[in-house]
């Protein structure tokens, strides 16, 4: 009876495991933080990292972390059909954008409704939209004389940075802060909050 109960418990865990894919275009520091966060989690696993850039450093991080990575060229993101096949092959349940710069194809939005989230390095709706990413955001925040910045975690829709907001966290922007100073504060918020929000939303 005890052996049977153990088998049932293991089977339940296997059925309940949520497989995450991360889309990333750059360095992948958030991706690495997410992988490490779920490293000992029995119910959520980062199974796949997809990048649109063959030289993105996130691919080296994936190799070091023993996570499968695939490069999908920009041309294949126009329709998204090959990406959807790839996601289904690996039984992906949830998608996380972590520094990913391309617009998500409609076919993926329909296949993963409310199962795809992004993190933006500012307090949306301010400083969002096409072309607003990375240092460009922090430069704009400082140039505008903002007193605070932060992060926004939101669902993905067909428009850049306009999906429903899930979570925001703020940091103070001092008058003497440079864009690099703001970036450091925002990165700290990303590392502190993003994995935990993924864990909560992916379980829904």
From TrEMBL:
Transferase in keyword set? yes
Occurrences of domain Formyl transferase N-terminal (ranges): 19-195
Molecular functions per Gene Ontology = phosphoribosylglycinamide formyltransferase activity
What are the UniProt keywords, alphabetically?
Purine biosynthesis, Transferase
The pathway entry for this protein reads as: Purine metabolism; IMP biosynthesis via de novo pathway; N(2)-formyl-N(1)-(5-phospho-D-ribosyl)glycinamide from N(1)-(5-phospho-D-ribosyl)glycinamide (10-formyl THF route): step 1/1
A Pfam family assignment = Formyl_trans_N
For this protein, the Enzyme Commission number is: 2.1.2.2
Q: Which SUPFAM superfamilies match?
A: Formyltransferase
Q: What GO biological process terms does the UniProt entry carry, in alphabetical order?
A: 'de novo' IMP biosynthetic process
- Which is a Gene Ontology cellular component entry for this protein? cytosol
Q: What class of enzyme is it?
A: transferase
Q: Which PANTHER family match?
A: PHOSPHORIBOSYLGLYCINAMIDE FORMYLTRANSFERASE (PTHR43369)
What HAMAP family does the database record attribute to this sequence?
Answer: PurN
What is this protein's record name?
A: phosphoribosylglycinamide formyltransferase 1
